Amino acid sequence: MVRYWNPQVEEMPKEELHRLQYKLLKTLVYRLYSFSPFYHDRMKEAKIHPDDIRSREDIAKLPFMYKKDLRDNYPDHIFTASQDELVRYHVSSGTTGKPTVVGYTQRDLENWTESLARALTSLGLGRGDVIQVSYGYGLFTGGLGLHYGAERIGATVIPASIGNTERQIELLIDLKATAIACTPSYLLHIGEVAEKMGVNIAKDTRLRTGILGAEPWSEKMRNRMQDWLGIRAFDIYGTSELSGPLFTECSEQKGIHVWGDFALTEIIDPATGEPVSPGERGELTMTILQKEALPMIRYRIGDITTMEEDMCTCGRSHPRITRIQGRVDDMLIIRGINVFPSQVEHALMSIPEVGRHFMIVVERKGALDDMLVRVELAKESFSDKIKDIINIRKMVEHRLQNALNVKVEVEIVEPGSLPRFEGKAKRVIDKRVM
Ligand SMILES: [Zn+2]
Fold it and tell me: What is the 3-state secondary structure (H, E, C) of the chain?
């Protein structure tokens, strides 16, 4: 089996990788200063000239870029390629305001595909695998992104997209899929629907790999899914503004390798914009070093993570980011305390009596915030005896309060009664902002 897609780059010594990043950064900054009115003005405002970038670390002198910049320049005013050089658009739906448009040249698509070919190889896939891509195809980047990466490594692709879950399960069985790419919440849904159809994913299918992402999920959820479905579940990361899904964990499952020749990664304090100490958590900020149509410098993604710079046991020198722990803007402030929905999931998934689904409801009663967590019990633990339910409720409340340091009310609900999601899960209802 092929272990590396591009060994020369993936095993490059760190010092060499850092030199390459500096060279690419310098070239990018000169190009944008000369040819992009947007970046030229930004750098002038910040009183920075490309000559001021004399080391890789000097990236910190450059101004940040935000999603708002893309919206304000809708649809294509920041693009640095002309329309006849573009070969594709993707558009992300804006939950607030205008959508964002990303354009790709042929070379941009080539780099995107190369990034995923390296990633999928690193987690153990290749020729002979059958990969069911159950991310949305179309304007969303997930489906087509995975699709071309999977084809590039010689795997066979089932472009299933999302929805029609029973048919997805039939395809999975009939075409002998060995891997599936989708959101973690959709894989949960697939597992449950399969059980209802009398299909045991672990025993009745050849599925052994899950490539899961596009929403935050926890390590406990990984363990549960691996045990339940008989697969190894890998985290995948990317965001539409930076192309789409780009990076995954390797077979070691110890963080997501971010290819340093494509992206220069910084972790910063979201409040001050200063870099955090190594290993500390903060906001993920990326500079895409080799993008022709829509280059991004120090793009503030808004995801919370940590970065590991040491050599991975797989032999790859490229830095790793850990599982996304939440969004800067998902962070709930409950009575002055920061709470991430991922912390709630982590605490719940370590309680065996609890099922796989929950919902957080926050409201303001008088001057105080009230946090209610609706929790589905595991089928085995659901009981008709009110006393049992009350005991479990008290135990779950206690565990959540200990984990979050904030008062939590728990409501136990029947297995199967909370909403299921085919795309990204919406597990928070914040009535304070409605
Ligand atoms: Zn690795």
Answer: CCCCCCHHHHCCCHHHHHHHHHHHHHHHHHHHHHHCHHHHHHHHHCCCCHHHCCCHHHHHHCCCECHHHHHHCCCCCCCCCCHHHEEEEEEECCCCCCCEEEEEEHHHHHHHHHHHHHHHHHCCCCCCCEEEECCCCCCCHHHHHHHHHHHHCCCEEECCCCCCHHHHHHHHHHCCCCEEEECHHHHHHHHHHHHHCCCCHHHHCCCCEEEEECCCCCHHHHHHHHHHHCCEEEEEEEEHHHCEEEEEECCCCCCEECCCCCEEEEEECCCCCCECCCCCCEEEEEEECCCCCCCEEEEEEEEEECEECCCCCCCCCCCEECCCCEECCCCEEECCEEECHHHHHHHHHCCCCEEEEEEEEEEEECCEEEEEEEEEECHHHCCCCHHHHHHHHHHHHHHHHHHHCCCCEEEEECCCCCCCCCCCCCCEEEHHHC
